[in-house]
Structure formats: structure tokens, C-alpha cells
Amino acid sequence: MTRIFSGIQPTHHLHLGNYLGAIRNWVGLQHQYESIFCIVDLHALTVPQDPAALLRATREVAATYIACGIDPVKNIIFHQSGVQEHAMLAWLLGTITPLGWLNRMTQFKEKAGKARDNAGLGLYSYPVLMAADILLYKATHVPVGEDQKQHIELARDIAGAFARQFGKEVFPLPEPQIFGAATRVMSLRDGQKKMSKSDESDYSRINLTDDAETIALKVRKAKTDPEPMPETVEAMAERYEVANLVGIYGALSDMTREQVVARYAGQQLSGFKKDLTDLCVEKIAPISAELNRLMAAPGDIDAILKKGADRASAIAKPVLAETYDAMGLLRV
Ligand code: TYM
């Protein structure tokens, strides 16, 4: 059986990277497989959050999933804190995860920075909670952007360690699904940095909440170089910013990078940027309009999340029970 699980942290607005690297792929997968899409609010807490903003962002991510085309009836959409088994399984898996595995995680190193002693325990054990998210549903496939690969490999390692230690294959080894034309969308300000929710400059990303005017401004201001558009894909190997914009254009228009380069070869960047703006507006404006419409009725979003959490719980509870039995925990 194939079961899909993926999630996004409710921190800030979602952006084009989240859309192209993850959500757009989910929209295609939802019709083929049983799919569970989570809003991972417990993960968001691993760095300081304003409580009111977290609550709002949790609803906004749910609304974004739906606005992008995820069907909440066919699939399960829920908030992580609504299913307590996530935290319980994370504890259990933490007991079999060597520190050495966590010490290798690049995200912790990046987020903790130099002041490691001040970083929270939650940030350190973040990948164990993520493994719990996936394994709690016996998910077989995890569609994500490239930056999550290491986390999913760790989830596989933990599932393997569990099987070795307890002699029971409770958890299938989850496969990362990293596909599509834009598995790593870069910042609009720096073509060598990932587009990220946490970048302090809002000009570094196109949010799925941006209106047409904001998108136009961000694309116009996107960093580029003074050269005209490249004649070949090879010619933009070190023109990181231009290569990123070409990649975005290709992903949004379902064209290969070669086709985009051929269309604009030798032309001025300003013309390309104008077309890219139109393309972004065409694809994103309907999402942001639908998202705003959904956000006007937070009660309806809460009802969807409650129903999703109930459905998720119904899958999670027996898996946790199986884990208890394998580990020798009393269930009375
Ligand atoms: P998060 O919230 O950082 O990102 C959500 C999804 O968007 C993808 N993504 C990108 N893809 C392409 N280009 C980018 N610039 C870009 N930025 C983000 C991410 O790869 C991800 O697929 N740890 C996860 C959340 C999580 C999770 C899980 C995911 C928690 N538990 C279980 C899958 C399964 C995260 O922080 O994603």
C-alpha cells in the first residue's frame, strides 16, 4: 500500500518555493494515493513564535493547501497538535536515536548558529518529531523539496533501528519523493540561498498571499546581472539569479529550462521579467484570492482541521498501540 504524508510549518506566509517544491506535487498525488497533509505547528514551536501569529498561520496554511487545490474531503488535512500521538511517538523514537545522528543534521547547525548552548532541546530533536510524523501513519512516500532529504533519511534510519532493536517491522521505510521542475527555488535577492519563510527580506520571496502589484514589484527588484538573457542553459551556469528566474518561469509554464532559454535567448532581461511577472500573477492571484476568501471564515477552517485530526487519530492510535506492544509498554 502507498500512503503519502507531508507537512509544512505554520511560520509566516507560504511562498513560491513551498508551492513548487511541495504543494503542487501533492495536488497531483492526491488523486492517486491515500494522502495526509499536516500543518506541523509543534515543529514551528522549535523557534520562538508569537502565539497569536502561530494560530493565524496554522489556519492560513490549511487555507493555502485548499486554495492550491488539495481536497480536504478526499485527503486528510490536519494540525499536528490535534493528534497527541505525534509527541508520544517522538518520545519513543527519541529513546532509540543516537545523538551522533542528530549531530549530523545540517538544519540544526544552521538554525542554532554559533550559540549552540542557547538552542532549545526541541530544535535539536526536531528530526525525531518529523520521523514520528511520518512513521505514525506508516507512510511510504514523503513528497518534499530537496532541503528535507536529510530529515527523511533519518526517519528511514530510525525505522530501521526500531526493527533491529525490537525485531518487528512496525514501520515501513519511507521514500522521499523529490520531483518536479523546481525542487529548490532560490531567493530573489541571492541566487545561492534558498527561498525561505524565515529570510528577513520579504523581497527575497514571492508569497502565495501577494497581490499582483506586490508580485510585479518583487520580480522587478529581483537581483540579476547586466547581461542579456543567456543563449544556452550552460551559459547561465554561474548566473545563479538568472538561472533561478528561468527555473521559476519553466516550472510555472510547464516548459523545460532549455525551452525558456530558447524563447528569450539574447533578449533584454527587462522583457523576460515582465513576462515572468504576468506568469506569476496568472498562477498566484487565484490562489491568494481563494486563500483570502477561506480566511474570512476561520470557523470553517477549524471544522476541517478538527475532522482531519479525528481521521488522522483513527490511523495513528493503532500504530502507536503496535509500537507500545513492540517496546513492552503496558496497555490497559
Ligand atoms: P518547511 O515548512 O520548511 O517547507 C515545506 C515544504 O516546502 C519545501 N520547500 C521548498 N521547496 C523548493 N524550494 C524552496 N525554496 C523550498 N522551501 C521549502 C520543503 O522542502 C517542504 O517540502 N521539516 C519540514 C516540515 C515537516 C515535514 C514533516 C515534512 C515536519 N514533519 C513530515 C514532511 C513530512 C519543513 O520544515 O518544511
TrEMBL record:
EC numbers: 6.1.1.2
Location of the protein in the cell: Cytoplasm
Keywords: Aminoacyl-tRNA synthetase, ATP-binding, Cytoplasm, Ligase, Nucleotide-binding, Protein biosynthesis
InterPro entries cross-referenced by the UniProt entry: aa-tRNA-synth_Ic, Rossmann-like_a/b/a_fold, Trp-tRNA-ligase, Trp-tRNA-ligase_bac-type, Trp-tRNA_synthetase
Reaction(s) this enzyme catalyzes, per UniProt: tRNA(Trp) + L-tryptophan + ATP = L-tryptophyl-tRNA(Trp) + AMP + diphosphate + H(+)
Keyword Nucleotide-binding: yes
UniProt cross-references to Gene3D superfamilies, sorted A to Z: HUPs (3.40.50.620), Tyrosyl-Transfer RNA Synthetase (1.10.240.10)
Assembly and oligomerization: Homodimer.
Protein name per UniProt: Tryptophan--tRNA ligase
Provenance organism: Lacibacterium aquatile
Gene: trpS
